[in-house]
Amino acid sequence: MPTINVGTVLMPAYAIASWYGLYTGTNNNRHVLPIALIGWSWAVINITRTKRLDLGVASFALVALSAWYERMYGLTKGARIAMILSSALVAMNYALVPANWGLITRTLAKTKSQTWLHIYFGYCVSQMVFWVCESVRNSMRSENVGYIPV
């Protein structure tokens, strides 16, 4: 019986949770902080496991800091700009996967199944689009809407 790689379950689950947060969110970023913290934790685990740099450790940290700042002080001009830029940075990080897919598949095909590779590609494209949508949504939000109780 083939074993199921944990990533084949976690990647789609994380993507669904992200999109659900965006869909159900109103004019706040309540969903962004937990999503960013999970992404940051995942990047730390990847670095620990593979001993290679995962840019998500920096990009997700910036989103988490921006979302935390907004929770504390409301949607100020600075918080809005930080959310726009940090979300765009995470989107660019995910965009590296489809942009380098040929090299990635040659490297990962040695250790990962074709199913895992398809899920990983779909996950990265989905998350890239998600973070672009977050960036755009933040650019359209009104400033000074008050803080979001922690």
Explain this structure to me?
The chain is mostly helical and 150 residues long. The chain has one domain. Helix content is 76%, strand content 0%. The protein has six helices and no strands. The chain has helices at 6-24, 32-50, 56-73, 77-99, 101-108, 114-140. Helix 1 packs parallel to helix 6 and helix 3 packs antiparallel against helix 4. The N and C termini lie far apart (45 Å).
Describe the structure using short key phrases.
single chain, 150 residues, mainly alpha, 6 helices, disordered C terminus
Overall outline: elongated
Radius of gyration (CA) equals 16 Å
Seen as an oligomer or otherwise, the chain set is: single chain
| CA distance, first residue to last residue | 45 Å
Which structural class best describes the helix and strand composition? mainly alpha
Number of domains: 1
Helix-strand string:
HHHHHH
Count of helix runs: 6
Largest β-sheet summary: none
What's the average pLDDT? 90
Compute the number of strand runs: 0
Write a compact overview of the structure shown:
This protein is 76% helix and 0% strand. It has helices at residues 6-24, 32-50, 56-73, 77-99, 101-108, 114-140.
List the helices and strands and how they pair.
Elements: H1 6-24, H2 32-50, H3 56-73, H4 77-99, H5 101-108, H6 114-140
